[in-house]
Amino acid sequence: MSGDRSHSDVHAVVLAAGIGRRLQPLTDETPKTLLDVNGRPILGHILDALADAGYERVTVVTGFEADQVRAFCESYDDLAFEFIHSDSFRETNNSYSLWLARERLREGFTLVNSDTLFPIGCLDRLREHDGSALVVDASKELDEEEMMVRIEDGRVVAIGKDLERGDGEYIGLCKFESEDAPALVRHLDELVEQGRTDEWYEAAFDRLVPDQRVGIVEVRNDWIEIDDREDLRASKRLWGEA
Length: 242
Hints:
By secondary structure, this protein is α/β, with parallel strands linked by helices. The chain has helices at about 5-10, 40-50, 65-75, 95-100, 120-130, 180-195, 200-210, 230-240, and strands at about 10-15, 35, 40, 55-60, 80-85, 110-115, 115, 135, 150, 155-160, 170-175, 215-220, 225. Strands 1, 4, 5, 6, 8, 9, 10, 11 and 12 form a 9-stranded mixed β-sheet that branches. A two-stranded antiparallel sheet has the order 2-3. Strands 7-13 form a two-stranded antiparallel sheet. β9 (about 150) and β10 form a beta hairpin.
């Protein structure tokens, strides 16, 4: 690791606790992140991208079928893993998963949703961006299913699925530098203290952005969040499977 690289450039957090109910019965006994896309599990594509981009450490938050996720990760020699398990994965959302990793966040980190496939160029440009940033698709037509982002002067000013309007969709990939991460942890703490463990972690982002500058990096190539069978079929087309 060179002296000018921040923790967010070498440490990634992958949230992989969910059940993937919309993909059942494929996910009855297999976590969604280990479903096959073009001969590799979704998680394999993500870890390949992180390793190729020069990341060194990955914190993985597990839940459903944690042993399968852990065994797959430990097949990688190029990445050092730490695992945090959520016993409450059936009752909580990803804000709680991220909160469980709070002690690993404060020095800066890159965050990846374990059901999202993205071009490796996103990681390169995210690391090149000065300061904290979300990767955003500013070209997509938005509906109520999307995690909308409102942007002013190159910074995020609001994020959520209930915004009246959005300027883009957050794709599930971002980084927070050491100057912003502790404030994010405080907002995650507040959600848990208020019993709001069923929230998306973007609720903490939305609380953060009025006071901390969070920029954007636009995705320039195909990406996909895999929620259901249609998404899974589309991912196989996008990632080259006949």
